[in-house]
Design brief:
The chain is of the alpha+beta class and 118 residues long. The protein contains five helices and five strands. Strands 2-1-5-4-3 form a five-stranded antiparallel beta sheet. It is elongated. The model has no long low-confidence stretch (mean pLDDT 93).
Length: 118
């Protein structure tokens, strides 16, 4: 299921659906009305922050796959599409972490097989 979030021009969360709660690993009640910067200290250094900022400034749609580092040290990969909306920016996210982990495992296995053959 796709995560859907709406941020206003002051970076405040206006809407967070159930899938976005799972992607954020936080309930909507913790995010709604709060700025992204307050919710995620250090977010300003991330690709997703730069993408949202560009959408808010230039009113342009953007898409990319990004790695997100959570406060607990875990990581997730997300396919992110950001579009301008009247309120600010609409963020659509799809969790692609399992795919990235499978690809990394396949690469490690291939490398191990290559070393074994050498």
């Amino acid at each position: 299921m796709e995560g859907c979030q709406i941020l206003d021009f002051q970076w405040r969360y206006l809407y967070v659906n159930e899938a976005a709660e799972r992607h954020n690993r936080r309930p909507a009640a913790e995010l709604l009305g709060q700025t992204m910067q307050a919710a995620w200290p250090g977010i300003e250094q991330t690709t997703v922050y730069a993408m949202i900022g560009r959408t808010l400034r230039e009113r342009t749609a953007l898409h990319d796959e990004v790695k997100f580092n959570f406060a607990d040290g875990s990581r997730g990969w997300f396919d992110i599409s950001i579009s301008p909306v009247e309120e600010g920016a609409f963020v659509l996210s799809i969790d692609v972490t399992a795919r990235h982990e499978a690809e990394a495992a396949r690469t490690r296995l291939f490398e191990q097989e290559q070393l074994a053959r050498s």
